[in-house]
Structure formats: structure tokens, C-alpha cells
User: Fold these one by one.
Assistant:
Number 1:
Amino acid sequence: MTKKVRNINGISNNNCRCGSWLAHWEKFSGRKAVFCSEAGCANQAEAGGQVLRVGANDDNWYIIPLCKEHNALTGRAIEVIDATIFVPVDAEETCGSEGHGR
Ligand SMILES: [Zn+2]
Ligand SMILES: [Zn+2]
């Protein structure tokens, strides 16, 4: 089983206090990112990719672990494994609040 997402990296340059989106994903998922979420991809997770869920009636932006190759596919739809944990980008408002204005 897979889920379809659209890679929206680069639409916004927002960042947060976690240091990287991959660190952000680990912090809020409580997991260690090991492999790319793309179904059939065996590469290591090297970045937190910003994605939209396709066909889920959900406009929120999420972070998922991706390899460099899949993280670079901005604007493209990719299939991710069913067990993928979607961490909302909005969590940035919590983890990023102390950093504003510095
Ligand atoms: Zn964060
Ligand atoms: Zn990949």
C-alpha cells in the first residue's frame, strides 16, 4: 500500500529552530529518520521534504523523510509507503516561536 503526495519543496523558504526539516520531523514524530519514504527507494533519508497529500482532502503541509533524489523532485507527485509519518509543518509555530526576532 502506498500514499500519493506532491513534493512542494521550495514553495516557501521558511525554517524552524530544529536546524533542518529532517530534525524537525524526528522531533515531532519521535522516530529516527533512516530511509527515504518513497515506496521502493532504498536510499537513506537525507532531508525533510515538504509535501501535500494528494486526494486526502487535506490542505496542510507535511514533512516526511526523503533522500536527496526524491527531495529534489519539486512539483512532482511521488508514492510513499503507507507507514510514513506525516509531521505537520505547522508545528514550526511551536518550535520556532522562541527564535523570532533574533
Ligand atoms: Zn521545527
Ligand atoms: Zn528516495
Note: The mean pLDDT is 88.
Number 2:
Amino acid sequence: MAARRRGHVATRVFQALRIAVNSEEEELTRGLDAALDALAAGGLVAVISYHSGEDRVVKSVLHEAATGGCHCPPELGCVCGAVPRVTVFKASARLASPGEIDRNPRARSARLRVARKLP
Ligand SMILES: [Zn+2]
């Protein structure tokens, strides 16, 4: 079961090569930042990723946008003047339901994250 969840070893190797060759993590960061810039206030951005590394990038970009890049200690409150760009709908990514995975096995690795652009 664990092996099945991670996918066939050849699939994983191919995925790692594809990610390295295409610089996908940097492209994903730039693309998502550009999407957030282009989005109108109140607009939604929804991202489905199919790999945990991609989801990590999406989570990180949305977290930075949600905090405005603020890293002030929570006990002090924000003193850096960071302006949040979005609100993230759920702290953790949504997964496909077991029924959906039965109908569409490719959905098994999908993670959905949604954010709304602030005014
Ligand atoms: Zn701050």
C-alpha cells in the first residue's frame, strides 16, 4: 500500500527528472506570484498540485502572501508594516474523497489550496 501511494519507482524517477530539467519549483513560484498580482480584489486563486514538492511551494507562496512576508514574533505583533495580499481558505490542503479517487485514480495525489485576494 505504501509503495502504491508513492507510485511506481519509474514514475517517481521520471517526475524528479522532469522537475529538475524544467526548474518547475521556480516556475511555479513565479507563476503563482504573477497570478496573485493579476488577480482582482476579491478574486480567488485555486491551485491543484499533484506532487508533495509542488504543494510545498504552493503552501509557501500562499503563506508569504497571507502574511505579507511578515516574520515578526507573534508575541510582539507586527512591527514591520507587512501588508497581507490574500487570505488562505484552509490551513491544510484539501484532498480528493475516496469516492473520487475510485472514479479517477489520478486524483489520489491531488492537493487543492484556495486563496482570496484582499483589497
Ligand atoms: Zn511584521
Note: The first strand starts at residue 44 and ends at 49.
